[in-house]
Amino acid sequence: MRIEESEGVSASRNHLVFAYYVTGHGFGHATRVVEVVRNLILAGHDVHVVTGAPDFVFTSEIQSPRLFIRKVLLDCGAVQADALTVDRLASLEKYSETAVKPRDSILATETQWLHSIKADLVVSDVVPVACRAAADAGIRSVCVTNFSWDFIYAEYVMAAGYHHRSIVWQIAEDYSHCEFLIRLPGYCPMPAFRDVIDVPLVVRRLHKSRQEVRKELGISDDVKLVILNFGGQPAGWKLKEEYLPSGWLCLVCGASDSQELPPNFIKLAKDAYTPDLIAASDCMLGKIGYGTCSEALAYKLPFVFVRRDYFNEEPFLRNMLEFYQSGVEMIRRDLLTGHWKPYLERAVSLKPCYEGGINGGEVAAHILQETAIGKAYASDKLSGARRLRDAIVLGYQLQRVAGRDISIPDWYANAENELSKSTGSPVVHTNVGGQQTCARSEDFEILHGDLQGLSDTTSFLKSLDELDAVYDSKNNTEKRQMREHKAAAGLFNWEEDIFVARAPGRLDVMGGIADYSGSLVLQMPIREACHVAVQRNHPGKHRLWKHAEARQNAKGQGPTPVLQIVSYGSELSNRGPTFDMDLSDFMDGENPMSYEKARKYFAQDPSQKWAAYVAGSILVLMTELGVRFEDSISMLVSSAVPEGKGVSSSASVEVASMSAVAAAHGLNISPRDMALLCQKVENHIVGAPCGVMDQMTSVCGEANKLLAMVCQPAEVIGLVEIPSHIRFWGIDSGIRHSVGGADYGSVRIGAFMGREMIKSTASAILSRSLPSINGSIPDELEDYGAELLKCESSLDYLCNLSPHRYEALYAKMLPESILGEAFLAKYADHNDPVTVIDQKHTYGVRAAAKHPIYENFRVKAFKALLSSATSDDQLTALGELLYQCHYSYSACGLGSDGTDRLVRLVQEKQHSKSSKSEDGTLYGAKITGGGSGGTVCVIGRNCLRSSQQILEIQQKYKDATGYLPFIFEGSSPGAVKFGYLKIRRRISLRLD
């Protein structure tokens, strides 16, 4: 029904005209539109579909003269750089070309067309400009969707730069003209729509039964069948027979005509009706989208999915799949290399349990019909301007991390709170109206320990206090939205003690990858930290999750100790939020399982591999200290240390986990041993070949001091005061760093190879130059130094070789690189217990060996300079050492475009005329930790101008790359200095 009735046009229940706009973002939108359109046409109405999708998507299901297809594309969706990666900048630029620049022409054309067909209602899935065109034409509009483009693009704007910000504002403004939203399950936050009607899944109906489809395909019912529903397959990807388990067959959707398939793969026609084929299969393999998820749930089909980068709708759909026990995440590498078997076999063991409605198309069509004849679903309590004010503009949901809240407008946070759409870790706002406030900790009695004025610990206790309310919630929608918190609420017995530990990440000021070669390192604990809460309970009193309880009942052994873990922030890192196991699974007969078996155990399910960092602490305590755990253990992990930025997020989790477990079980572990035990978790159970400086800093660090440690293997030599005139910052490059990555491991292997070659050379010189019969020492041996050669022939740490000895004897004999096979043939082994040489890989040796030898010298010089007289020369020398370290990383192959750019920006500031006239502010920068991305450490004068320059670098980096860097500043105490909290809920004080 029109808002303003036009002459000669009337609407009746018997015959209405709908204009249905479909986004250009893939087939999933078109397939769900089909079902709504089909029901509208069955009711006797005309539907004009405006789409860029092929006609067969609609005509294969609807053969009716009431269906009109108009081939027009009014938005572009998300542009993909490849089959699994969204190109954020290209998406914004394409939208600008498609919908922004021709906007006036689009609105004029669409307004005229809507009048020409005498439309009674405009429906959008989920084309923004359609809502504005409807308003211009005086026609009501309704959106039907599970996400909105302002939400999707807002995160892209955060990454791409402010010059695209107007796009998101324009989209939000367009949506504000929509009367209300018909919201589909698996939805994202959409505050632009203030009136919402939830409907069941919109799913295409089945034409044939499972038996009919299999009979037509000639596949018996006992054959396992997987459907590969993977649009836009990676270029050059060739499917191989061995990808499938023995006896399995695979139906391939979207294969090109020229693509050759193995005999156990079956090519489907391009217009094949996939719902029938999905229902006839045993599981599905593909990318997450609304269409695949809804049909997998509707037909109770396990779905093995591969995550797409920057596909912001995905976490919410994945939540829905996992909630109904229908999803298994496959890592990209395993998809492309054909390691499918464990995922497929796990998938068919699932028991999907979705029992909700699947008639969303019928329900939505009824609502649209009622709206078109005049029924008012909107509340009228909120104006379009108010709806716009509450729209998502900055992609807050996906960007909520410490340090970025400053760029989030207050009105958005308010809108988010109204709609209860919080994701990730609970965040407590501590600054309201300019007044500093603290979350209450009075609901817990602190039996041991001290908050030490740490606001993040206060916030963590507040989040614990709020779990009771989550657990008591009876609202099913709220349960789905707060899945992590719901699981956490079931962890603890509030009448028993809970132990809380805290461990910070670290900023690698100097030392970096030289730690595994025995260097002196200087590390600063950062402000961001991980909190872990642990409670132990008698197995008979432990509150179990339903599936864990069912597992125990199936064994028929009665209550046995169980480990249950909840980790906040799963939405931000695409992993499962919970993990549980019987603690007896850690035993192999009478002894704890081997670390190798444990690594394989945690790698079974990629979405839960993260649990190795937490649960691995328990196995290490069992193996190394002989601890036996007779009680069940509940653990809640909440980390504010960003992942993949080179600031030791993994070490903070390991240290906080082991510290909390030790506190709960009365284990007295020395700080040094704690760090070494946590390193074993990462080296042997996670499988990452890191040194020990990360764990040692997280354990032993103190706020605003540098931990000085000689890594042979872990000797803390003291804490170095940071002079008051010096300040350190970390700037994140946005390029993900991984200590488990190939580059870091290869450089480490190259360094150990270099050590073996140096030892061999020293031995050879000694053997050629043995003393003569009369006992005299040859001149050659005197020149080289007999005692030094003996030490070098048994060199335990590469950093024990001085730079001048390296240059005098060994620099020229080390090869630039060597093939793994050639090295093993000559030297047998590189004697590194945590890495394995790949015989077919070529390793850089000279640069990898030279770096730690010179880095050890640089760190010693840096430490000495910190205590020298305050001067501009002091700061210049400190900065120069950082620069030298950075370029040495690059020589090893551990640099990156992003970190190089940040270092250049620091250099530009340092050498600018303004800095020289003001005695300088920034003096040096270097890549940190494992390199190949991650964070850059910057040194500067501790003054306001330096902070301003850091912010200017942040903005320049964003202008150049589209990524707004995270800035690390500030420090906090390590795990030992914090100790632990022993808390108990004050039950009597809770009146609700």
UniProtKB/TrEMBL annotation:
Gene3D superfamilies: 3.30.230.10, GHMP kinase, C-terminal domain, Glycogen Phosphorylase B
UniProt-listed Pfam families: GalKase_gal_bdg, GHMP_kinases_N
ATP-binding among keywords: yes
Domain GHMP kinase N-terminal intervals: 613-701
GO biological process: galactose metabolic process
GO molecular function: ATP binding; galactokinase activity; L-arabinokinase activity
Taxonomic superkingdom: Eukaryota
Protein keywords: ATP-binding, Nucleotide-binding
The Galactokinase N-terminal domain, residue ranges: 495-536
Keyword ATP-binding: yes
Family annotation (InterPro entries): Galk_glycosyltransferase (IPR012369), GalKase_N (IPR019539), GHMP_kinase_C_sf (IPR036554), GHMP_kinase_L-arabinokinase (IPR053205), GHMP_kinase_N_dom (IPR006204), Ribosomal_Su5_D2-typ_SF (IPR020568), Ribsml_uS5_D2-typ_fold_subgr (IPR014721)
Gene Ontology cellular component annotations, sorted alphabetically: cytosol
UniProt cross-references to PANTHER family, sorted A to Z: GALACTOKINASE, SLR1395 PROTEIN
Name the record gives this protein: L-arabinokinase
